[in-house]
Design goal:
Elements lengths: L3 H13 L21 E5 L2 E4 L4 E4 L14 H11 L10 H13 L5 E5 L2 H16 L3 E5 L12 E2 L9 E2 L6 H5 L1 E4 L4 H10 L4 E6 L15 H12 L2 E5 L11 H6 L5 E4 L10 E5 L1 H4 L18 H15 L4 H22 L5 E5 L2 E5 L8 H6 L2 H13 L2 E2 L8 E2 L6 H11 L3
Parallel strand pairs: 3-15, 5-8, 5-9, 9-10, 10-11
Antiparallel strand pairs: 1-2, 2-3, 4-12, 6-7, 11-12, 13-14, 14-16
Helix pairs in contact: 2-10, 3-10, 6-7, 11-14
Length: 424
């Protein structure tokens, strides 16, 4: 397939936007080539500026649970837009979305809306610090919590120690307060907790990580975090920006039966519009301004268009709870199909899947954390990505990203996807 118009559009974008994109993964840096420009989309299909149709496996990186241009969301946005797009004053829509979220998610009484997952995580950590009066947080190598300073810290060659900044512009002072542990390794967490007694405000984790590919939590790991937090008065923060309203209506709290103290949302909760949120029991949320002293605000927070889209999305989930089963079944078909072809061809691989999150790593060893994810063969991944793209299948353009299936994906789409892999 030729992508001449995308290529020209990318060249034009590069003149006025750094790297030609407004979020780095879109630039195809880790797979090579240039990004595909999309003109419009419907259901599971993307229509590119070049006139090609692609089967979409990223669903805008998660939000579009029911597929692109989902009628209830589009209608709600249109209806709301007619009445004005922003007021800087409260609207009933905010309460309606809050009530529905509180009803669907375990262990939360109150929720605050923001504009992105990044904002949600940044604000949740501030609240955790304000609530506990402690400064340090523990995060896991390979877990992504948005681009705020405290989270841009990774392990140097697997060292479980004080973090060093992984981006210029993050100060050593900030990095010092972020301690790094290894996902699926409870001892790496325990030793940090013991070494920093009474200094740790929060442990922040993607309960089912999707930002080093999909990683499945090992039995007991998340319960182990809960126990450590209880024993040391640390708040457990579940970053459910990816998993919330995707794995189940109650997110990973529901599927793993581990309860978090603070939960962060994004992606699905906005139905494809910019929404993030963080939520907890009333006792914790009451520390937030204007009820309490921990400051947090936003001119466009609770924006009516975004709330209307989120409300239509969550209502659609409420009315159709079988959607999670259907999504997991579709992901299982994709998983089985890819697995059998790669096995036939003798290509070393590991496929991780949890519900409708899935990732293919080109390595035989189990992929359980950042180190094992980073070990996989990226040259094979590049070839695989471009092979599929050439045959009309749009996969995540990085081995460190999860697939996100949507409910509009049909059996015919899955067949076409698996056929495309046959001559890899
Ligand atoms: C996407 C994501 C974020 C960041 O959300 P943005 O809306 O991109 O700022 C945070 N945490 C997780 C787990 C995510 O997947």
């Amino acid at each position: 397939m030729e992508y001449k118009r995308s290529s020209a559009l990318f060249a034009a974008a590069n003149k006025v936007i750094p790297g030609g994109v407004n979020s780095p993964v879109r630039a195809f840096k880790s797979v090579g080539g240039h990004p595909v420009f999309v003109k419009q989309a419907k259901g599971a299909h993307l229509f590119t500026e070049d006139g090609h149709t692609l089967i979409d496996y990223i669903s805008s990186w998660g939000p579009l649970l029911f597929g692109h241009a989902f009628e209830p969301v589009i209608e709600a946005v249109k209806r709301t837009a007619e009445k004005g797009t922003s007021f800087g004053m409260p609207t009933e829509l905010e309460t309606q979305l809050a009530e529905l979220a509180v009803k669907m998610v375990p262990n939360i009484d109150k929720i605050r809306f923001v504009n992105s997952g990044t904002e949600a995580c940044m604000s949740a950590v501030r609240l955790a610090r304000g609530y506990t009066g402690r400064h340090k947080i523990i995060k896991f190598a390979g877990c992504y919590h948005g681009h705020s300073d405290s989270f841009l810290i990774q392990a140097g060659s697997g060292a479980v120690t004080f973090g060093s900044p992984s981006s210029p512009g993050v100060t050593p002072g900030t990095a010092q307060d972020t301690l790094l542990a290894r996902y699926n390794d409870i001892e790496s967490v325990r030793s940090l907790v013991v070494a920093n007694a009474d200094e740790i405000a929060a442990i922040i984790v993607e309960p089912v990580p999707g930002n080093m590919g999909c990683i499945v939590p090992e039995s007991g790991f998340l319960h182990g975090l809960r126990d450590l937090c209880d024993a040391h008065n640390i708040l457990l923060l579940f970053d459910e920006v990816m998993t919330g309203f995707r794995l189940a209506k109650g997110g990973a709290q529901e599927t793993t039966s581990v309860r978090a103290d603070l939960v962060m949302f994004g992606k699905v909760i906005g139905g494809g519009l910019p929404v993030g949120a963080f939520a907890a029991r009333g006792e914790i949320m009451s520390h937030l301004a204007p009820e309490g002293p921990v400051y947090q605000a936003g001119t466009l927070s609770g924006n009516p268009l975004a709330m209307a889209a989120g409300l239509a999305m969550l209502q659609s989930i409420e009315n159709d709870p079988q959607v999670f089963r259907r999504l997991a079944d579709k992901a299982a078909s994709v998983h089985r199909g890819i697995e059998s072809t790669l096995r036939e061809k003798g290509i070393p691989h590991t496929i991780n899947r949890y519900g409708s999150m899935l990732s293919v790593h080109f390595d035989e060893e189990p992929v359980v954390d950042f180190e094992s994810a980073a070990r996989a063969n990226n040259d094979t991944f590049k070839r695989y990505f471009h092979h599929m793209l050439d045959r009309g299948v749009y996969l995540p353009p990085s081995a460190f990203e999860s697939y996100f299936l949507n409910d509009a994906l049909s059996e015919a789409d899955i067949d076409k996807t698996l056929t495309a892999l046959k001559d890899f």
